[in-house]
Each structure stands twice: as C-alpha cells, then as structure tokens.
Design brief:
single chain; Arc Repressor Mutant, subunit A
Length: 288
C-alpha cells in the first residue's frame, strides 16, 4: 500500500480539516488523490454497530441512492452502519473515503480489510491521522469521528442509540459548522433514542429520502425513474405491493397478504430467485 503523508502546514493538506477545531498535525492517505475526492459532494453516513433490519435497509438505500448521484460516501469502516454504507456505495459504482482509528498498515476491524481494499480498488481512499506502526488505542475511535465529519459536507445518521459513537460524530459536526441529518426511527426502539434526541434538541434535520440530502447539498436529481416491479402472478404482486408500502417484516407481510404460510414461503422463494427481493436478515426483506 502506497501511503502519502500530508502535514498541517503543507499546501496539499485538506482545507476542510485545516479549519476544524483540533486539526490533525499530519494525515496519512492511501488510494486516490484526496484533493480530487474532496472536490465532489460528500456525505458521511454513520450509525450504530448493532443495526436493526430497518436500519440496515435504510442505510443500504440511502448510501446507494446518494452514490448514484455522484456523492462520495465517507464513513469509518466500522462494523454496522459504516460497513453497510461503504459496501452499498461500492455496489452502486460510487466512491468512498474511509477514516480509520488505526494506522493504514493495520486496518481495523480485521474482518473489514477486504472492504477497505475494495474502496481503494474502486478509486476511493483510506485516511488516518496515525503513523504506520502505532498500535490502535481506545481513544482513537472517538477522535477519528471528528475527521469523518470534518471531511464531509453533511453528516447523515441512519440509526443510533443514546450512547452511540455516531452521536460524537454529530457533536463534532455541529462544532465544525456541518449540517447533521438523521433518519427518524421507531419511537420505542432503543436504537433510535440518539437520533430522536438530536431531533428534539433541534440539532438535526429529518431525512426520509435521498432527495432531502441532495437538496441540502444544492444538487440536482440525476436519477431515472425506477422500472415498476411486477410479479409473475397475483400472489407475488400482492407481496410486492406490500413491500412497496414500506413493509419489510416477513410476519407482517404474511398476515397482510392473507396467503397461507406455505404459499407465502413459495412466493418469497420465487421472488428471491427472480432477483426481485433480497433478504435483510431477521426475517426482513427488501425489493432489489
């Protein structure tokens, strides 16, 4: 891995970080030219490491939609929302910047090293403020979050509990003058408490579509209308129509479709084989 060092006083040091509180004295970068990536619109997508099926579905959709609009997705390569956002952006043909809490020669977590390499292979970049050979420290994980927000035009939190690290990222963003956006969740879910606290405090704006984000960034929607999803028969269409209404949980789909359990199971199988739906885990499903 070819690692480039940028120092705070150098001309090629990112202005986006030079002007934040506590800018890193040095920055280590691998992959594409960071200055070129920073010329593009950028959104940091962050959140909990313990996603619900709903949080995963929302993160996938927003990261994919934004990447298709040419937005660079920034995150921390952590388990959960970070990794899902990075992968969704790559799958959409987009670019990513991953900010690490460790040196670039020791990517953590270990099981996301392939994802980090995929980011590089697709024209993105890995960034760290820690020199090669330095062992990762617990405090580096929170410190990293100020760079995630600092490199972004806006921070989007898709799911976060009251003590999630994403709340630190939101606070860093606010101190840096960045916009904070959140996806409202279930009012009874612990995984949405942090998000709702930000909304109640007036510190964040609500997002229900990628359109909300690109409007904030002053971008035009370049997407083309998605083709209408059609089932091969009335049973499949019934299930697809329910999913288009936002229902993802298998048990609720079964009840509302009024199909027998065996017929419902066959419908899901055929829709998945046909490439029309995909499993999200925990008996939740999403349209492709």
């Amino acid at each position: 891995m070819n690692i480039k060092k940028l120092t705070l006083g150098a001309a090629d040091y990112p202005e986006e970080l030079r002007n934040i509180p506590s800018p890193p004295k040095q920055l280590y970068c691998a992959g594409a030219d960071l200055s070129e990536l920073l010329k593009r619109p950028r959104v940091a997508i962050v959140g909990t490491r313990r996603m619900t099926a709903y949080g995963k579905m929302i993160t996938l959709r927003l990261a994919q939609d934004l990447a298709e609009q040419g937005v660079v997705i920034i995150s921390g390569l952590a388990t959960g929302v970070d990794a899902v956002a990075h992968q969704a952006a790559l799958d959409a043909g987009g670019l990513c910047i991953a900010v690490l809490p460790s040196p670039l020669d020791n990517v953590v977590p270990i099981f996301n090293r392939r994802l980090g390499q995929a980011i590089l292979d697709q024209g993105g970049a890995l960034v760290s403020e820690y020199a090669p050979g330095i062992p990762p420290q617990k405090q580096y994980f929170i410190a990293r979050n100020r760079l995630v927000s600092g490199l972004a035009d806006a921070v989007l939190i898709t799911e976060a509990g009251e003590k999630s690290g994403a709340i630190h990222t939101a606070n860093f963003a606010l101190d840096q003058g960045r916009d904070v956006l959140v996806v409202p969740g279930n009012i009874h879910a612990a995984g949405s408490v942090g998000i709702h606290n930000l909304l109640k405090a007036g510190k964040a704006g609500a997002v229900t579509s990628y359109i909300d984000v690109i409007n904030l960034l002053g971008l035009k929607d370049h997407s083309t209308p998605a083709p209408q999803v059609r089932g091969r028969n009335a049973y499949e269409q019934t299930v697809l129509d329910l999913m288009l209404q936002g229902i993802s949980e298998g048990q609720i789909l079964l009840e509302k479709s009024q199909l027998s359990a065996s017929e419902f199971g066959r419908v899901l199988t055929m829709l998945e084989i046909g490439g029309k739906i995909r499993p999200l885990g925990a008996n939740h499903w999403a349209i492709m």
